Amino acid sequence: MNRKSADQTRRCTFRISTETPLPAGEQVFISGNDPALGSWAPDGLPLTRVQDCLWTGTAVLPAGRTIEYKITRGSWQAEEALPSGAFSPNKTLRPGADSVIENKVLRWRDSHLPPAPQITGNYEIHRNVKSKFLAEPRDVIVWLPPSWSKKGAASYPVLYMHDGQQVFDPNTSTWNHALDVDDYCTELMKAGEMQEIIVVAVYSTGDRAVEYDPAAKGGDYAKFIVEELKPFMDKTYRTKPGRESTAVAGASRGGDISFHLAWTRPDVFFGAACLSPAFRFEGREPCLDAVRNALTVPDIKCYLYCGSGDPLERELMPGMRDMARQLRLAGYKDGVNLLVEEDEPAAHNEESWSRHTPSWLKFLFGIQNPKPARKARKNRK
User: Fold this and answer.
1) Residue 225: inside a domain
2) What confidence tens digit (pLDDT) does each residue in 138-150 have?
3) What is the DSSP string of 131-194?
4) 156: pLDDT confidence band, cut at 50, 70 and 90?
5) What domain range is 275 assigned to?
6) What are the φ and ψ backbone dihedral angles of 71, each rounded to 5 degrees?
7) Residue environment code for 18-38, b if the CB has 16+ CB neighbours within 10 A, otherwise e
8) Residue 294 lies inside a defined structural domain of this protein
């Protein structure tokens, strides 16, 4: 290996321990956002059993790029789970030199029955929704407004959200804290501060990083939402299908794809809420480029938010601020079709994002009413 290539790559040895030995025929794998880790194939890098509860393997990875990875037993049904049973978030390996990475798996996703959902109000779950544009099926939760079951009830606006497992239920959310969209919708609607809406929460899969990236498979994911999921929802539920009644929201990379959907399909979406979006990340900024290079400016509403309470939020903040600046240059007006919020102590997690859920819900679907909404308490035990 010459010096140049050695400077550009690093040898990363994974040492994965398990709480109990795996049966004969089972194996542990690393799946991540690099070809050496399978490009998010669930059986990307096979590890070797060196002790009853210890598995190891080495991958040559880019030295200057952040690596995200998960631990599996060869499928997404058998990936690592948090002790609570919730999905384990992507693990992160920052740019650097050769290293040894040690993780311990306390629970696998298929090793127990999931707890009962903690979702306020009425909802329906569509399991394993397939797409001709995407490789992995995914669950979709449809949250229904309080007046849904009343006779003669009208049709409703629709909010589409990504990372559906993080939207309502703390049992399926990272660190047992959701965005509390069900709680806040219920309170804001009861207080008369927002319209009654339907919320369609689309689960993410192991392909999340590329599906939420407008420069990768984001176009295919957009086709799934616009050409497959939305027509199904409009046919199955009493929706207001027009663009003036349809918005989209997401956090982190979900903020990227939310902006991309609204910006490129203003015929479908009137607005987007983008929480801690990765508008400038790892040297790429496709959403910012889209705004800078736009020949026409779409008529949409944009909510932008970022915190400063941890290294990742501080890394993302300049991209969010640049997007706000670019939108203002394009003619967007604060408080009219643009709302920008910052939260200095907030970290890159659902607990921080949930504190701002009422703000963006009212910006997209609000109506004038002085009564304040009570704070959601589902995750505060």
Assistant:
1) yes
2) 999 999 999 998 8
3) -SS-SS-EEEEEEE-TTTTSTT---B-EEEESSGGGTS-TTTSGGG----HHHHHHHHHHTTSB
4) very high
5) 122-365
6) -110, 130
7) beeebeeeeebbbbbbbebbb
8) yes
What is the arithmetic mean of pLDDT over 275-281?
A: 95
Q: What's the CATH number where 208 sits?
A: 3.40.50.1820
Q: Give SS3 for 4.
A: helix
pLDDT in tens, 6-27: 469 999 999 999 988 887 778 9
Q: Which two tokens stand for residue 151?
A: 């006779």
Label the pairing between strands 91-93 and 67-72. Answer: antiparallel
Give the single-character DSSP code of 226: I
Give DSSP secondary structure letters for 227-272: IIIHHHHHHHS-B--SGGGEEEEEETHHHHHHHHHHHH-TTT-SEE
* Domain final residue pick, 55, 77, 111: 111
**Looking at the domain assignment, is residue 3 inside a domain?**
no
The pLDDT tens digits for 164-222 are 999 999 988 877 899 999 999 999 999 999 999 999 999 999 899 999 999 999 999 99
Q: What is the pTM of this model?
A: 0.73
How many domains is the chain partitioned into structurally?
2
What is the strand order of the sheet 198-202 is part of? 122-129, 138-144, 198-202, 158-161, 246-251, 271-275, 301-307, 338-343
Say how far residue 28 (Cα) sits from the centre of its chain.
25
Nearest to 272 by CA among 291, 290, 252, 257: 257
Q: In the chain, what percentage of residues exceed pLDDT 90? A: 81
- The chain-wide mean pLDDT, for the chain, equals 91
CB atoms within 10 A of CB 209: 18
The answer on 346 and 237 residing in a single domain is: yes
